[in-house]
Amino acid sequence: MFAGLRRVDQRETGVRYLRGLMLDGQRKSMQPMAARLGVDHQQLQQFLTSSTWDVVGVRRRVAQTAVDLIAPTVWVVDDTGFPKDGPASACVARQYSGTLGKVGNCQIAVSVHAATDAASAVLDWRLFVPESWDETCVPDEAGKVANEHAKRLRRQPVTLDQAGKKKPHVRKEVPREEQIAQIQHRRAASKLPDDERYRPKWMMALEMIDELAGWNLYPPLLTADAGYGQVAEFRQGLTDRGIPYIVATTSTTTAQPGDAAPVEAAYAGVGPYPTPRYPRPAHSIKDLALQAGVDHTTLVHWRERLPATDSGDRPAGTLSGHFFALRIRPAGRAVREGLPHLGDGVLPDCWLLVQWPPDQDEPTDYWLSDLPTNTSLSELVRLAKSRWRIEHDYRELKTGLGLDHFEGRSWIGWHRHVTLTTTAQLFCTQLRLTNPKAPGQP
């Protein structure tokens, strides 16, 4: 992985850092690791924050090796949180984190993983840049922002009093020039590149997919949770890149039935001819699922449950649930804007996969997929549920290899740490697949 590093001391320190990540120990920050390795922690800190080695080159070799080793059947996109106590770490802000299950002070990272049921590995990372770390998101006097991706910030936020009524949130207004100066100071202190700006997480995922394509790595199929799957622009981005997908979505996603067809409106004799339109408004996919009814569900088994820790080598049973699939035509403004300008107004059709436990009054989960019409229900379910491997990655990276133990504040330091942690995980994965009984090293 370090073959591209020109200096011998850099290659040696890289291997030493990996060894520190894989040794036993509660903390995998630089000082505890240096103590276990018997070296000065300044050596590790300099390697991460001020050395000149190419982190992108290492990450490219890790990704290529991971794909060759695992032969993935699916790529997974997701994000994870890194709780922080202070405000100085790069891109830390009060934001929602699934790791915390609430809004908290944290960093958010978006990742792409290669996976099969037997193994998985991270291919790429991006650190999310919040609006509070981008001066182009500061509104001007008219409330407009220069960043086209940023939402208009609320000028008068409100909170709830004890009676549950809205009341003004009392806080000191910071002048615009002072806000910009504060953001620029934080960016300079953390050494954020000038071209790293706020954009949605789904856009960062597409950027990583394009970067991996530049390394001649392409997903056989991509899956993601509803935070990405509900975004029509993300699904369209995958379609434009020729990437098949099966992504979770929310019950409020709108669609037309699969057999719906647009009709031509009468020409008024003036102006351009009207575009064909669907005769009825789009429904939510929840409504379409309720119209089909729970009687359409079929019991599907998708994989063996992992053995429990107290049950030895015996399998702990089979994971199963009740599902059905419908052909639908996703609707909405973003979908319509993605249609050809000279087309006939026909929305693209796709699969809607629905999970509906028989003891529930309504479905619990929904997925959209552009897989072929002859795809079986069991195959749709198996692929939709393949995201479970990513939780294994995050758990191993954080609890075993110190992914979230980095205490530095710089942008490049964070990216180098997560790249090295990913390399350590890939080494462990390789051992599990090729030599699971390999002895440890002192």
The chain-level mean pLDDT equals 88
**Runs with pLDDT <50, length 5+?**
153-160
First-to-last CA distance: 21 Å
User: What's the count of strands?
Assistant: 14
- Helix percent band: 25-40%
> Which series of helices and strands comes N to C?
HHHHEEEEEEHHEHHEEEHEEHEEHHH
Whole-number tally of structural domains = 3
Give the count of helical stretches.
13
Gyration radius, rounded: 25 Å
Structural class, from helix and strand content?
alpha+beta
Strand content: 15-25%
Biggest β-sheet strands, sense, barrel:
12 strands, mixed
The 3D shape can be described as globular
Domain Transposase IS701-like DDE: 1-306
Protein name: Transposase IS701-like DDE domain-containing protein
Organism: Winogradskya humida
Structure description:
This protein has 442 residues and is α+β, with helices and mostly antiparallel strands. Helix content is 33%, strand content 20%. Strand 5 (158-160) and strand 6 (166-168) form a beta hairpin. The strands form two sheets. Strands 1, 2, 3, 4, 7, 8, 9, 10, 11, 12, 13 and 14 form a twelve-stranded mixed sheet that branches. Strands 5-6 form a two-stranded antiparallel ribbon. It has helices at 8-22, 30-37, 41-49, 55-70, 176-190, 201-214, 226-229, 232-240, 285-292, 333-337, 377-384, 388-400, 411-434; strands at 74-83, 93-97, 102-115, 120-127, 158-160, 166-168, 222-224, 245-249, 254-257, 283-284, 298-304, 318-330, 350-355, 365-369. The two termini are 21 Å apart. It contains 13 helices and 14 strands. It has three domains: 8-75 and 112-126 and 202-217 and 390-434, no CATH class; 133-190, no CATH class; 222-261 and 277-307 and 316-370, no CATH class. It is globular and about 80 Å long. The model is unreliable at 153-160 (pLDDT under 50).
